[in-house]
Specification:
Oligomer: single chain
Length: 153
Amino acid sequence: MERDLRAKLPNGRFQGTSPQRSATMRAIKGRDNRTTERRLRLALVRAGISGWAVCPKHVPGNPDFWFEQQQLAVFVDGCFWHGCPSCGRSPKSNTEFWTAKIERNRAKDMAASAALEKTGAKVLRIWEHELKRGLADCVAAVARAAHSPCAVV
């Protein structure tokens, strides 16, 4: 955990957090999450959409999907971790830490999008709740973006 986030916690540690909660939060992966990246990846394959790479290291901002030929970056953002304006919520404990963590994630998201757009790439961000409510619409949005000449989607 980064020093500036640790400073938001009493004694630099989570206090009063149950071992079960700690284990649950520790088990959440940053990549290849079942409800986000994996779900969209499977839907893209089923729809016959190809030409993308998963989490390429050479692309600024580390997008979840990268369409090299179309210069399209697709990010799938978890509603909790990226502070979704419609359904994101803040935990009731350690609120100062979580607020700082989510604000930091949102700032990194904006910086990644700006860096990609500066190179002329298109950026598409899909929220976790959008995948849950309308996976077909998300796949259609990716297909449109991959064939759209505009710089920002």
